[in-house]
Design brief:
single chain; about 140 residues; mainly alpha
Length: about 140
């Protein structure tokens, strides 16, 4: 729910500045025009592989190392900023990915497990992929 509210707030705040949504910065043609098998492989990549490997790298390693040296918020902001930069979006996309990175770091902090963040990340990516497919396929 926090992810949805954060996205909504970012969209509202970016409108007066005529900033485009980060969703228009990302597009995988395989989700729209590829064969069913290639589309399925893209979905596996985005919904399974990316969440697992990104959460291991950015929360399981980077955040965990930073957390030993810093309090939660600085460690979360640094690791989430690097996570956001790695995605390569513009300003709104950076803020959106930063927000999700902080939320997933918070989940890791509260549970001591990467699984809630992996699940949230997978659901987020699945919803984005399904939206792209529904709107453009």
């Amino acid at each position: 729910m926090a992810m949805v509210w954060g996205e909504w707030v970012m969209d509202r705040l970016s409108e007066p500045f005529h900033l485009t949504s980060h969703w228009v910065e990302w597009f995988d043609a395989d989700l729209v025009w590829a064969s069913p098998s290639k589309t399925a492989m893209s979905l596996v990549e985005y919904v399974i592989f990316a969440p697992v490997f990104e959460e291991l790298a950015f929360r399981g390693l980077l955040f965990a190392i930073l957390r030993r040296k810093f309090r939660f918020l600085p460690a979360a902001l640094i690791s989430a900023s690097i996570f956001a930069i790695a995605h390569g979006y513009g300003l709104v996309g950076f803020i959106s990915v930063l927000w999700s990175g902080v939320l997933w770091a918070w989940m890791y902090e509260k549970t001591g497990s990467l699984l809630p963040g992996i699940l949230a990340h997978a659901i987020n990516n699945l919803l984005v992929c399904l939206a792209v497919m529904a709107l453009l396929r």
